[in-house]
Specification:
The protein is α/β, with parallel strands linked by helices. Among the domains are: 47 residues, Phosphorylase Kinase, domain 1; 178 residues, Dimethylsulfoxide Reductase, domain 2, CATH 3.40.228; 117 residues, Barwin-like endoglucanases (Beta Barrel). A 7-stranded mixed β-sheet has the order 5-4-18-17-16-6-7, sandwiched between helices. A hairpin with an 8-residue loop joins strand 4 and strand 5. Helix 8 crosses helix 11, helix 8 runs parallel beside helix 14 and helix 17 packs across helix 19. The longest helix is centred in the N-terminal third of the chain and has 19 residues. Bound molecules: ligand MGD (2 copies), iron/sulfur cluster and molybdenum atom.
C-alpha cells in the first residue's frame, strides 16, 4: 500500500502503510496504521514472503514504544561532560559537528576519527557513512555493531565459498528433511522463522527432523528431536568429529568434492590426525547423541543448517563457521533446494550494512579495503583522487574503544547502537568514552547508557518516520514506507550524515531524496556477488521486496545461489578449510570456576531502549537475572530469587538467581538486555571478556570465567 497523502498532512488522518520490523533479521513486513502522530495498530503483512502474516510479541507491541517522554527530538551539545546539554538548531548543530571533526582531522589526521554504526541503520545511511569516512576522510575506522554479531559469519562464507551472504532462503524450510540449529535459539530470537519450521513439522508428521546443538536446552532445543548439549566453545571438535565419522561411514559426496571443492586432501590430512576419543571428551555430550547426529546427517537428502551467535561470538568464530560449511561441502548438502548453510542475521539490516561496506575491512558491493583494485573502483565512482581510500585496515568495534582509551583515537561518531551497554568489558568502554575528545551520538532516545556519555546528540527519525531500505537474512531487500512525521526536529539518519558532510564543504552529498542515495549505491554492486543493480528505488518501492542477486531491472531476483555449483572463487570451486579445536580464551579455573554465557530472551530487544517501554513485554520479563544449574546452586547454597554476586576478572554483577536444569552444570546464563539505566551492577557486560577472534575480530561474548557467591543482604561488596 502506498502513502495516502503528503507527509505534512499525515498526522491528521489515518494513514496505512508497510514497513519492515525494526527488530530482528527475519525481516517481517508489518502493516501499520497511524494517526494523530502515532501508530495505532500493527500486524504482520499477509502476503509478505518473510512472514506471511506472522508477527511476534516484539513486533506486535511496537505501538507502545513510539512516543515516549525520552524521545530525542532536538540536536543538543554540551561543553563538558558534567554540563547540561543545550538544544541547538540543525544548522548550528551540523556546523558544530563539522568544525569539531575538521579540527581533530587537522590536528591528528584521519586515523584519529571513527564511525561506529549499526545493523539497525538503513542501507542509505550506512552507505553515506562509508562514503564520508572511508572516501572523504580517508579512514577505515568505519565499523558497526555487526562486528559483535555477523563478522565471523561473513568471513566464514567468504573463505569457504568465495563471497559473503547465505546461499539459502526461507522456502528451504519446506524442502529440507534435516534441519540443524547450531548455536541459535530461534524460538526466542527468530521466532517467526521458527514458527514456519514448527508449522511444517506439525503438518508433516514431524518432518523435517530437527537437531539442536546448544549447551543449553533452550526453548528451541526443547522442541527438537535431538538435542546435542555440547560443552560451550566445542563446536569445532564436534564438527570435525562428525566429518571424520561421515567419512568412515562412506557418507561423503565424492563426486561433488572432486568436481567442485578444493583443499580436500589437506583437509583430511589435518583433521585425520585428531583423536576421536579426545574429541568426544571435548564435546562432552553423550556418545549416543553424537552417534545419532552423525546417523541423521548421513541419511539426509537435504540438510539445512541455521546458526547464529553460538558460533559467531567466539574466539574461534571463523573456525566454527568454516567447520560447519565443511560438513555441507563433504556431504554435497549445498547448491540444491532445502540444503545449505543459513546464517540467521541478527539485526534488520546487518545484511545491508555488509552490502554497503560498513565493516572496517569492507568497501561497497562486497569489496575489500585490502584490494587495491577495489579501492580504485570505488574512488573512481566517487570521483575522488587515487589514494583517497586508505590501504590501512580500519579499527574494528572493540579496537576502536581500546584506541579511544589509549588516545590513538580522538573522536567517535556512534549511530544506532548503544556500546555503553552492549560491548564486552564495560568498565573499559566507559574509560574509553571518558577519555575521548569528542563523542557524537545519533539515536532516537535520550538518555541511553551511551548518550549519557556524549558531547553531541543528534536526533534520528524513528521507525515509520522515514523511508528506507533493509536486507533480511535471506537476502531479501525491502522498502519501508514513511507513515509519520519525525518527532520534533528529528531527521532520517542518511540526512544527518549528508548534512555533516555538506557542512564540511564536501562535494557529493547533495541528494534530492533518499531514492537518489540508494540509486547511487546500487551502481557499485554491478557485477558483484550482491548485485542489486536491477532494483532501483522506483522498482523496489513498487514491488516492495526483491532478493539479490538481481542484476537487471527485468530480473525477478534470486531465491537460491550456487545452484549451478559454481562458487565465486577465482576457479569457481568452494574450499574445505580445516581447523583444529582450540579452547576459549578464558577457561574456568580454581579462582573463577564457572562459565558464564549470555544472550537473548523472547520478550526483549538488546539494550531495552524500545522493548523496555512496553508494559506487556516488561510484564513477561521485567528484570535481570542469572540462571544456574541446581547442582551448582546447591553447592553454592543459593536459592531461587536470592541475589547472587558474580565476579569475573573485569567486573561484578548482582542479580537474582533462577534455578534451571536446562543448563549444563558449571554453566551460567544471563540475558544481556539490562544496562546501567536499569540499576547498578546489573549489566552482564561488566563481566564479559573482549577476547577477539584473530581473523574476524568478533568478541567472545559467549564465554568467560566467573565466580559466584550469595550476596549477603546489606553487604554491597560481597566480593
Ligand atoms: N528476542 C530477541 N531476538 C533477537 C534479538 C534480541 O535482542 N532479542 N537480537 C537479534 C540479534 S542482533 C541477534 S545477533 C540474534 C542472536 O540470536 P541467537 O544467536 O539465537 O541468540 P543468543 O541468545 O545470543 O545465542 C544463541 C545460543 O547460543 C548458545 N551458545 C552459547 N555458546 C555456544 C557454543 O559454544 N556453541 C553453540 N553451539 N551454542 C552456544 C546459547 O546457549 C544460546 O542459546 O537475535 C536477534 N533476535
Ligand atoms: N553480553 C552480550 N553482549 C552482546 C551480545 C550478547 O549476546 N551478549 N550480543 C551482541 C550483538 S549480536 C549485538 S547486535 C549488539 C546489539 O547492541 P546495540 O546495538 O548496542 O543494542 P541496541 O539496544 O539495539 O542499540 C541500538 C540503539 O540505536 C537506537 N536506535 C534505534 N533505531 C534507530 C534509528 O533508526 N536510528 C538511530 N540513529 N538510532 C536508532 C536505539 O534507541 C538504541 O540506543 O549487542 C552485542 N552485545
Ligand atoms: S520475528 Fe523478528 S522481524 Fe518478525 S516481528 Fe518478531 S522481531 Fe520483528
Ligand atoms: Mo546481533
Amino acid at each position: 500500500m502506498n502513502l495516502l497523502s503528503a507527509p505534512s498532512e499525515i498526522d491528521h488522518r489515518a494513514t496505512i502503510g508497510e514497513a519492515i520490523c525494526p527488530y530482528c533479521g527475519v525481516g517481517c513486513r508489518l502493516w501499520a496504521e497511524a494517526a494523530y502522530g502515532t501508530v495505532l495498530r500493527v500486524k504482520g503483512a499477509p502476503l509478505a514472503p518473510a512472514n506471511r502474516g506472522g508477527i511476534c510479541a516484539k513486533g506486535a507491541t511496537l505501538p507502545q514504544t513510539m512516543n515516549p517522554p525520552d524521545r530525542l527530538s532536538q540536536p543538543q551539545v554540551r561543553t563538558g561532560r558534567r554540563d547540561h546539554f543545550r538544544p541547538l538548531k540543525w544548522d548550528q548543530a551540523l556546523r558544530h559537528v563539522a568544525n569539531r571533526l575538521a579540527d581533530i582531522l587537522q590536528r591528528h589526521g584521519p586515523q584519529a576519527v571513527a564511525f561506529y554504526g549499526s545493523g539497525q541503520l538503513d542501507s542509505e545511511a550506512a552507505y553515506l557513512a562509508v562514503k564520508l569516512f572511508k572516501g572523504c576522510f580517508g579512514t577505515n575506522n568505519t565499523d558497526s555493531n555487526s562486528r559483535l554479531c555477523m563478522a565471523s559469519s561473513a568471513l566464514g562464507y567468504l573463505s569457504s565459498l568465495g563471497a559473503d551472504g547465505p546461499p539459502t532462503c526461507y522456502d528451504d524450510v519446506d524442502q529440507a528433511d534435516l534441519v540443524l540449529v547450531v548455536g541459535s535459539n530461534m524460538a526466542e530470537a527468530h521466532p517467526v522463522t521458527f514458527d514456519r519450521l514448527k508449522a511444517r513439522r506439525a503438518a508433516e508428521n514431524g518432518r523435517p527432523y530437527l537437531a539442536v546443538i546448544d549447551p543449553r536446552r533452550t526453548r528451541t532445543a526443547a522442541q527438537a528431536d535431538l538435542h546435542v548439549p555440547l560443552a560451550p566453545g566445542s563446536d569445532v571438535a564436534l564438527l570435525d568429529l562428525a566429518a571424520l565419522r561421515l567419512a568412515r561411514r562412506g557418507a561423503l559426496d565424492e563426486a561433488f568434492l572432486r568436481d567442485h571443492v578444493d583443499g580436500v586432501d589437506a583437509f583430511w590430512q589435518a583433521i585425520g590426525r585428531l583423536d576421536e576419543a579426545a574429541l568426544v571428551a571435548a564435546v562432552g555430550a553423550p556418545a549416543a547423541t553424537i552417534d545419532e547426529l552423525v546417523e541423521r546427517i548421513a541419511a539426509s537428502r537435504a540438510m539445512l543448517s541455521f546458526y547464529c551467535m553460538g558460533l559467531g561470538q567466539s574466539s574461534a568464530g571463523v573456525a566454527k563457521h568454516n567447520s560447519l560449511i565443511n560438513l555441507h561441502l563433504i556431504t554435497g548438502q549445498i547448491s540444491k533446494p532445502g540444503a545449505g548453510p543459513f546464517s540467521l542475521t541478527g539485526q534488520p539490516n546487518a545484511m545491508g550494512g555488509r552490502e554497503v561496506g560498513l565493516l572496517a575491512h569492507q568497501l561497497p558491493g562486497y569489496r575489500l579495503v585490502a584490494d587495491a583494485s577495489h579501492r580504485r573502483e570505488i574512488e573512481q565512482y566517487w570521483r575522488l583522487p587515487a589514494g583517497s581510500i586508505s590501504a590501512a585496515p580500519g579499527q574494528t568495534a572493540v579496537e576502536m574503544f581500546r584506541g579511544l582509551e589509549s588516545g590513538r583515537l580522538k573522536a567517535i561518531w556512534i549511530a544506532a547502537t548503544n556500546p555503553a551497554a552492549s560491548l564486552p568489558d564495560l568498565h573499559q568502554v566507559r574509560r574509553a568514552l571518558e577519555r575521548a575528545e569528542l563523542v557524537i551520538v545519533q539515536d532516537v532516545f535520550h538518555p541511553t547508557e551511551t548518550t549519557r556519555l556524549a558531547d553531541v546528540l543528534l536526533p534520528a527519525a524513528n521507525w515509520l518516520e522515514k523511508e528506507g531500505t533493509t536486507t533480511n537474512s535471506e537476502r531479501m531487500v525491502s522498502h519501508s514506507e514513511r507513515l509519520l512525521s519525525p518527532a520534533g526536529a528529528a531527521r532520517p539518519d542518511w540526512e544527518i550524515v549528508a548534512g555533516v558532510a555538506r557542512a564540511m564543504g564536501l562535494p557529493g552529498f547533495d541528494y534530492a531524496n533518499r531514492g537518489a542515495v540508494w540509486d547511487e549505491f546500487i551502481g557499485l554492486t554491478v557485477g558483484r556477488p550482491c548485485d542489486l543493480s536491477g532494483m532501483p528505488a522506483d522498482r523496489l518501492r513498487q514491488e516492495k521486496q526483491l532478493q539479490w542477486p538481481c542484476p537487471a531491472v527485468d530480473h525477478p531476483g534470486t531465491k537460491r545461489r550456487y545452484l549451478d555449483r559454481v562458487f565465486p572463487t577465482p576457479n569457481g570451486r568452494a574450499r574445505l578449510i580445516a581447523h583444529l579445536p582450540t579452547p576459549p580464551k578464558e577457561p574456568a579455573d580454581a579462582e573463577f570456576p564457572l562459565v558464564l554465557t549470555s544472550g537473548r530472551i523472547y520478550a526483549h530487544w538488546h539494550t531495552l531502549t524500545r522493548t523496555g517501554k512496553s508494559d506487556k513485554l516488561l510484564a513477561r520479563d521485567g528484570s535481570p537475572y542469572v540462571e544456574i544449574h541446581p547442582i551448582d546452586a546447591e553447592r553454592l547454597g543459593l536459592a531461587a530469587g536470592e541475589l547472587a554476586t558474580l565476579q569475573s576478572r573485569r567486573g561484578v554483577m548482582r542479580v537474582p538467581v533462577r534455578i534451571n536444569d536446562s543448563l549444563r552444570p558449571g554453566l551460567l546464563f544471563a540475558p544481556f538486555h539490562w544496562g546501567d539505566l536499569w540499576g547498578d551492577d546489573q549489566a552482564v557486560n561488566y563481566l564479559t571478556i573482549a577476547a577477539l577472534d584473530p581473523q574476524s575480530k568478533q568478541p567472545e561474548l559467549k564465554y568467560c570465567a566467573v565466580a559466584v557467591e550469595e550476596a549477603r543482604l546489606g553487604n554491597g561488596s560481597a566480593c
